[in-house]
Amino acid sequence: MGERRGVYRVLVRKPEGKRLLGRPRHRWEDTIKMDIQEVEWGVMDWIDLAQDGNSWWALANAVINLRVPQNAGNFLTS
Fold this sequence. Notes:
- The protein contains 4 helices and no strands.
- By secondary structure, the protein is mostly helical.
- The protein has a domain at 23-68.
């Protein structure tokens, strides 16, 4: 791997600056749990949900529809 490649630089680079003290604000798992509650799918184990691909993609599409405005992308058809 060459020294100029991005992957190499990420692996050997020392981060600059300082991290905030304490635990991270949100973990990836916490975000998934909040999304499930937000789309009102009830109390579900997200790990079991992820095992079923169709259900997982249905959840992902429901969350995307909450986050992305319905007219997003219509600017191209003016």
